[in-house]
């Protein structure tokens, strides 16, 4: 249940560390709360310090940027169609650009398998572990 | 006149034994084709009878193992592995809590995956749950799984704030 002011850890290598949700997109139902697989607009609150090198893993965002992201883990339990409930210990997101493509190239951490049902197969295939 | 005709037709079409003696307008429904099973008439009602009727014997045995009186009951603090029919098919974790509600009995498993805690709540009587295997039992009697320490609580939610205790349990598993 991520809404305005909700903070999420960023688990890709785009350079951001912590983002704060500003808006949940396409939510006519659910009262404006975002869950796993929902796209949000967020502000980068903490990012990795940008050094002068231009390497492949250089951070692509800096603090204060407004970007889009998809929620991949929530602390609020999410119900699967077969009746299970899944809950993680933190809220996490993966940054996207305006065309729903990932900004980073790798994902470091477990993601929820509900992403596959919502159409984020690319993220699920990049994740080291899907639960 | 039309009403009288309608009433006549209804009474002719129904298979009622006797008409209602105090009113001509009463409609007596015919007795059901399948009679009510004897246990529902024993005074307990339909909801107590349904779990016996709708659940398979294997599910009833599994439910009994999560009960409070079974000699080989599953205790909180055990490490279980649940296999389900749909992806992701397998989840292993420490049993934190058993929520006993008859046919709606569920249990909560916690595991730490890639430094993130994950908790999954499974419903025992779900047809999607294929198998529950006890990898380590928390005290108690039983032949399944290795013996582990007995927990002194029914609900182990304190493990959420104690990562060292979780690592101790996983270390005990690996030994």
UniProtKB/TrEMBL annotation, chain A:
DNA repair in keyword set: no
Keyword terms of this UniProt record: Ribonucleoprotein, Ribosomal protein
Xref: Gene3D superfamilies: Ribosomal protein L14
Domain of life: Eukaryota
CDD domains named among the record's database cross-references: Ribosomal_uL14
GO MF entries: large ribosomal subunit rRNA binding; structural constituent of ribosome
Gene Ontology cellular-component annotations: mitochondrial large ribosomal subunit
Record SUPFAM superfamilies: Ribosomal protein L14
One Pfam family linked to the record: Ribosomal_L14
Protein task: Component of the mitochondrial ribosome (mitoribosome), a dedicated translation machinery responsible for the synthesis of mitochondrial genome-encoded proteins, including at least some of the essential transmembrane subunits of the mitochondrial respiratory chain. The mitoribosomes are attached to the mitochondrial inner membrane and translation products are cotranslationally integrated into the membrane.
Family designation: Belongs to the universal ribosomal protein uL14 family.
Name used for this protein in its record: Large ribosomal subunit protein uL14m
Lineage of producing organism: Eukaryota, Fungi, Dikarya, Basidiomycota, Agaricomycotina
Automatic annotation (TrEMBL), chain B:
Keyword Ribosomal protein in record: yes
GO cellular-component term (any): mitochondrial large ribosomal subunit
Top-level lineage group: Eukaryota
Gene Ontology molecular functions: structural constituent of ribosome
Biological processes per GO annotation: translation
Keywords: Ribonucleoprotein, Ribosomal protein
Protein's UniProt keywords contain Ribosomal protein: yes
InterPro entries: Ribosomal_bL19, Ribosomal_bL19_sf, Translation_prot_SH3-like_sf
Family recorded in the similarity comment: Belongs to the bacterial ribosomal protein bL19 family.
Name assigned to this protein: Translation protein SH3-like domain-containing protein
């Amino acid at each position: 249940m991520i809404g305005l002011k909700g903070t999420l850890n960023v688990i890709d290598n785009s350079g951001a560390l912590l983002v704060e949700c500003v808006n949940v997109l396409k939510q006519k139902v659910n009262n404006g709360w975002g869950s796993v697989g929902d796209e949000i607009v967020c502000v980068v609150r903490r990012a990795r310090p940008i050094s002068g090198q231009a390497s492949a893993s250089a951070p692509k965002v800096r603090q204060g940027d407004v970007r889009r992201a998809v929620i991949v883990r929530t602390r609020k339990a999410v119900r699967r169609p077969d009746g299970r409930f899944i809950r993680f210990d933190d809220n996490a997101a993966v940054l996207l650009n305006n065309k729903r493509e990932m900004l980073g190239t790798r994902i470091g951490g477990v993601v929820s398998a509900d992403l596959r049902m919502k159409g984020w197969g690319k993220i699920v295939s990049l994740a080291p572990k899907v639960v | 006149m039309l009403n009288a005709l309608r009433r006549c037709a209804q009474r002719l079409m129904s298979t009622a034994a006797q008409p209602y003696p105090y009113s001509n307008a009463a409609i007596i429904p015919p007795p059901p084709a399948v009679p009510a099973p004897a246990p529902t008439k024993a005074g307990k009602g339909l909801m107590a009878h349904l779990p016996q009727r709708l659940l398979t014997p294997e599910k009833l045995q599994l439910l009994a193992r999560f009960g409070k009186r079974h000699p080989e009951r599953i205790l909180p603090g055990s490490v279980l592995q649940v296999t389900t029919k749909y992806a992701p098919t397998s989840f292993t974790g420490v049993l934190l809590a058993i929520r006993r509600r008859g046919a709606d009995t569920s249990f909560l498993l916690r595991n730490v995956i890639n430094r993130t805690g994950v908790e999954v709540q499974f419903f025992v009587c779900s047809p999607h749950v294929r198998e529950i295997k006890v990898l380590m039992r928390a005290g108690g009697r039983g032949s399944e799984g290795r013996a582990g320490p007995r927990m002194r609580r029914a609900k182990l939610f304190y493990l959420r704030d104690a990562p060292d205790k979780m690592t101790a349990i996983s270390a005990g598993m690996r030994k």
